[in-house]
Amino acid sequence: MINRNDPEIGKRVLQKLTGLADRAASELGRPPVLMEICGTHTVAISRSGIRSLLKESLVLKSGPGCPVCVTDQSDIDRIILLSRQPGVVIATFGDMLRVPGTNSSLEQERARQAKVEIFYSPLEAVDFAEKYPGEQVIFLGIGFETTTPAIALSIRQAEKQGLSNYSVFSVHKMVPPVMKVLLSDPELGVDGFILPGHVCTITGRKAFDFISAEYNKPAVIAGFEPVDVLEAACLLLKQIIDRQARTVNGYTRLVQEEGNQKAREIMDQIFSPADVYWRGFGLVEGSGLKISRDYEDFDASLRFPAEINPVSPQSNFGCACGDVLKGKINPGDCPLFAKRCTPLWPVGPCMVSSEGACAAYYQYELS
Amino acid sequence: MQGKHDMVLLSHGDGGLLTHRLLEKYFLPFFKNEILESLTDAACFLVQPGRMAITTDSFVVDPIFFPGGDLGKLAVCGTVNDLAVSGAKPLYLAASFILEEGFALPELERIIESMFLTCKEADVQVVTGDTKVVGRGQADKVYITTTGIGYVLPEANLAYFRIKPGDAVLVNGPLGEHGLAIMLQRESLGLENRVFSDCAPLNKIIEPLLRRFPGIKFMRDLTRGGLATTAKEIALASGMDIWFDETSLPVGKTVKGITELLGLDPLYLANEGKFLTVVEAREADGVLNYLKNECGAKEACVIGEIRPGRGDVCLKTALGGVRKLNMLAGAPLPRIC
Question: B218 has which bridge partners?
C-alpha cells in the first residue's frame, strides 16, 4: 500500500493536477471552480497549503460542510436557553462551546453558572448520566450522517439502561437535501464537487448519484489526506475536460456503493426526516433528523420546550457566514473577517468551529 | 478510608500547632537548607553584583499526577525554565501552596518529594514558602505558586532587537508531549500512558549554551500555546517573519498519530521541557551539535529561519505549499500547567 502521507507522491499528483487544471481552464475559458462539501476537507486543503499552491490555476471553494456552522441561529439560542434550565447538564462535542448565539455562548453560560461537559463520544455522556442520576443530561446532537449513528446508539443504550435523565437535542442534518438546494441555485458557478468521504461511508456512493444524473455536475468522493484531495480534484478535472458528469468513488478504502446499512438502520429507527432551518439556506425540506415518535422520551426539545423567536437575518451583526456556506463569497470577502470577527471573538460560527471555513482561512491561509 | 490524620484540615492553615506540624513533617524534611531553616519571615541571602532576574508562575494542573511528571515537578521546572530562557542562572525559589480541605497528605508528600528531587536536578533551593488551606470545593486539591530568582549570566545577551533576517531557529526536541499527555490523562479515550510529558528543568542545558555561543540572540520555552503561539509572539515583537519547514519539525510518531486521530495540532500543544533558540546562522551548526552531543538532546534540530517581514509565522508544508501559524485562540483545554 502506498503511503498517502508521502510528500513526494503528493508533489507528483500536484504536478498532474496543475496540468489538468490548465487544460480545463482552456476548455472553460476561465479557471475551473471546485467546491468541497466537508469541513475536514476545508481544513486539510488550508493546512497543507494546497490552495496557495493552486491559486493560479484552480479555484477551490468551501460549501456547507461544517455541521456547527450550518446550525441555525435560533437553534444555538435554544441550546443557550437549555443550558440555563436548573438541573441540566449540557453534554457536547468541544466544537460547540464557543459558538456565539445572539447574546451568549455556552462558554459564557458556563462561566456564569451552567453545567457544560465536553465528550468525545455520546456513549460517555450516557455513562455520565448513569453516574449522576440527579442531573438531566442533554446531549447536543449536531452533525451530519457521520455522527448521527453514534448518537442514535446512545439513545438506544440509554433506553436499555432505563435512564430517564438522558436526552438528545437533535439538530442533525443530512447532506444530499442541501446539495439539491445548492445545485438549484443558478448563481452557483461550481464545475465539480469534492464529496465528504466520512458522510459517504454511511450513505454510500449511490446516495449522491443525483448530482451527476439530475444536475449534470461531476462529483468525486474523497478521503482526507492531502493526496486524497488532490487525486479527487484530478478526477473532477478529467471529467470537466471530457465534458462528462459522473459521481465517482475516489475513497474506495472506506466507501461502498450502498454505504453502511447497519448504521443507517439504527438512524432510521431512532430518527425521522424533518424540514429544518440551515444557516444561509433557510428551511430545507426533509434535510433534518428529529427523534422519532417511538423514542420521543429522549427528545430534549419535548422534555424542555423552550420558546425562541427566530432571529431575522438582518439582525445578525453583518456576519456573512450564510454566504460563505453557499460558496458565494470567500471568508476574506466578509467585511468582518479578521477585523471584528476572529477566533477569539467570533461573530459567526464559521470563525469558531475547527471545521469552519472562516477559521481555516484565518488560521492557515496567507492573506 | 482516609483517616483524619491523612488529610488536610482547615486547622492546618490556622498558623497554629497543626500548621507547624505540617511544615515539620512534610515540608522541612525535604527542603532542608540553611536559608530556609532559619524560618524567619523572609529569606535573606547574599547576591553578587550585576543584573538579577525574577519570575513567578502559578501551577494548577489537573490531574496533579500525570505520565512523566506531577504538579511538584512542574512547579519547579516552569519557574526555573522561565529564568533560564531569560539568560539567568536560577538560584532560589519561593513556593506557596494553596491546599483544599480534605486533600490527602500522602499525595502532598509525593508532590513535595518530587519538587525536592527536581530542585536537586536543577541545582536550586526553596528558601521560603507559605501554605494556606481553603474549604472543600473552594480549590481543587492543591495549587502551587513558585517565584524564582537568579542572576543574569554576563555572557547572555538576549533581546528581540537582536533578531535579524538570516538567523536560524532551533528547537531541542519533539513537540507537543506535555499538552497531549495531560489531555489523554484527562479524557477517558483509552489512550492513557501512551504519551509522557517532557517536563524537565532546562537550566543545565541552557547555561553552557549561553556561555559558549555568543551568537544566541533569543530564547523562549514553548509552554502554553506551543511552538506556533510562541513563534508568533516572537515574530510580532521583533517585526520579522519566521519560516518553518514542516518536514523538519520534530514530532514523535505516537504524538503525530494521536493528534491526527483527535484533530489536534502538535504545534499548538504545550511543552514543558522544550525551548526555541534564535541564533546567528554561522553558529547554528555549533549549537545543534552541542545540543545533540553534550546535552543528550538527540532530536534537536534546526526548524526554520528568520526572514524580513511584518510579524508573520509561515510554515512551508510537506507538499511545498505555505500556511500561516497564528496564536492559539481559545482551545478548550484549561489547566495544563
Answer: B278
The DSSP bridge pattern shows strands B88-100 and A219-222 to be unpaired
Report how far residue B205's alpha carbon sits from residue B208's, in angstroms, rounded to the nearest whole number: 6
Looking at chain B, which residue has its C-alpha nearest residue A52? B321
CATH top-level class of B4-152? alpha beta
What is the pairing mode between strands A172-173 and A166-170? Answer: unpaired
Digit-coded pLDDT (tens) for A62-80: 999 999 999 999 999 999 9
How many angstroms away from the CA of B263 is the closest CA of chain A?
9
Query: C-alpha grid cell for residue B17?
Result: 500547632
Per-residue pLDDT tens digits for B199-248: 999 999 999 999 999 999 999 999 999 999 999 999 999 999 999 999 99
Give the Cα separation of A284 and B289 in Å (integer): 62
Q: Which of A251-255, A341-345, B73-77, B120-124 has the lowest mean pLDDT?
A: A341-345
End-to-end CA distance of chain B: 30
Report the predicted TM-score, pTM, of the whole model to 2 decimal places. 0.86
Tell me which residue has cell 473552594. Answer: B138
φ, ψ for residue B313, nearest 5 deg: -115, 120
CA atoms within 13 A on the CB side of A138: 28
Question: Cβ separation of B323 and A365 shorter than 8 Å?
Answer: yes
pLDDT of residue A314: 45
Size of interface A-B (CB pairs under 8 A): 68
In this predicted structure, the answer to whether residue B64 has a pLDDT above a threshold of 60 is yes
> For residue range A25-66, what is the model confidence (pLDDT) as tens digits?
999 999 999 999 999 999 999 988 998 888 888 999 999 999
Residue A351: closest C-alpha in chain B:
B329
The dihedral region occupied by A27, where left means phi > 0, alpha psi between -120 and 50, and beta the remainder, is alpha
Interchain contact A11–B (C-beta under 8 A): yes
In chain B, which residue's Cα lies nearest the Cα of A94? Answer: B332
Q: For chain A, list the domains and their CATH numbers.
A: 1-319 (3.40.50.11740), 320-364 (no CATH)
The answer to whether B191 touches B258, Cβ cutoff 8 Å, is yes
Q: Collect all residues of chain A within an 8 Å Cβ-Cβ radius of residue B263.
A: 354
- Please judge whether A10 and B319 are an interchain contact, meaning their C-beta atoms are less than 8 angstroms apart: yes
Predicted ipTM of the assembly: 0.78
Query: Which residues from chain A sit within 8 angstroms of residue B242, using beta carbons?
Result: none
How far apart (Å, rounded) are the C-alpha atoms in residues A309 and B292? Answer: 64
CATH topology of domain B160-325: Phosphoribosyl-aminoimidazole Synthetase; Chain A, domain 2 (3.90.650)
Q: Which residues of A touch B326 (CB under 8 A)?
A: 343, 362-363
Q: What is the overall mean pLDDT for chain B?
A: 93
Q: Which of A5, A10, A363 sits opposite B326 (nearest CB)?
A: A363
Q: How far is CA B250 from the centre of its chain?
A: 18
